[in-house]
């Protein structure tokens, strides 16, 4: 099944997930002041994900103050997602788990086959999306390797500019 290429400015793909706290999360129900930031991470096995998500947690209150609500999402099992959440010190950021391959493809994420015992059979490579309160995709980043990630500090520093200037989503040209 080929992966999609969701376009900024268009409705974001559907995203419904179970959270490790025995609740359900639905993108359609979110109402952030600025954006919902969806952080797609590879899983518990990834030390780079641990560093990126831990750094994001450090600035979590600042993200919230700027109107950006965050959820971390992986294809991991509930047990692995819970362990990552606890061991990596990610509380109180919502942690979604069990994302399907079909959903990962709808979001344009790359999928990898696991290598060795520590990696799951199949998992998504990292990605990040910002979705506006109206459900439109604003920003989409994805990588085919664990080594390339957006600069979260730079993104955080631009939230006010984007809101104040009504800066439009980019990458919207179709022809």
TrEMBL record:
SUPFAM superfamilies xref list: Thioredoxin-like
Leader sequence segment: none
Coiled coil: none
Gene3D superfamilies noted in UniProt: Glutaredoxin
Domain Thioredoxin span(s) in chain numbering: 6-164
Transmembrane residue ranges: none
Pfam families given in the database record: AhpC-TSA (PF00578)
An example molecular function term from Gene Ontology annotations: antioxidant activity
Source species: Jannaschia seosinensis
Superkingdom of origin organism: Bacteria
Protein name: AhpC/TSA family protein
């Amino acid at each position: 099944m080929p992966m999609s290429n969701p376009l900024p400015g268009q409705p974001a793909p559907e995203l419904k997930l179970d959270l490790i706290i025995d609740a359900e999360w639905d993108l359609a129900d979110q109402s952030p002041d600025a954006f919902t930031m969806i952080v797609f991470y590879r899983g518990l096995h990834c030390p780079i994900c641990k560093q990126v998500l831990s750094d994001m947690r450090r600035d979590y209150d600042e993200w919230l103050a700027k109107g950006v609500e965050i959820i971390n999402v992986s294809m991991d099992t509930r047990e692995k997602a819970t362990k990552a959440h606890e061991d990596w010190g990610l509380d109180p950021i919502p942690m979604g788990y069990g994302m399907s391959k079909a959903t990962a493809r709808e979001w344009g994420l790359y999928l990898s086959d696991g290598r060795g015992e520590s990696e799951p059979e199949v998992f998504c490579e990292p990605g990040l999306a910002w979705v506006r309160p109206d459900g439109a995709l604003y920003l989409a980043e994805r990588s085919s390797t664990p080594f390339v990630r957006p600069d979260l500090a730079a993104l955080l520093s631009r939230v006010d500019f984007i809101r104040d200037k009504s800066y439009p989503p980019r990458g919207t040209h179709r022809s």
